[in-house]
Amino acid sequence: MSNVLVIGAGGVSSVTVHKMAMLPNVFKNITLASRTLKKCQDIQTKVKEKYNININIAKLDADNINETVKLINKISPFLIINLALPYQDLNIMEACLITNTHYLDTANYEPKDEAKFEYSWQWDYSKKFQEKGLMALLGSGFDPGVTNVYTAHTKKHFLNSIHSLDILDCNAGDHGHPFATNFNPEINIREVTSESKHWENNNWQVGPALTNKVSFDFPEIGPKNMYLMYHEELESLVKHFPEIKKARFWMTFGDSYLKHIEVLQNIGMTSIKPINYNGMDIVPLQFLKQVLPDPGSLGNRTKGKTCIGTIITGQKNGKEETHYTYNICDHEQCYEEVGSQAISYTTGVPAMIGAMLMIQKIWYKPGVWNVEQFDPDPFMDLLNKHGLPSQTIQLDKKLSF
Question: 3-state class of 219 per DSSP?
Answer without folding.
Answer: coil
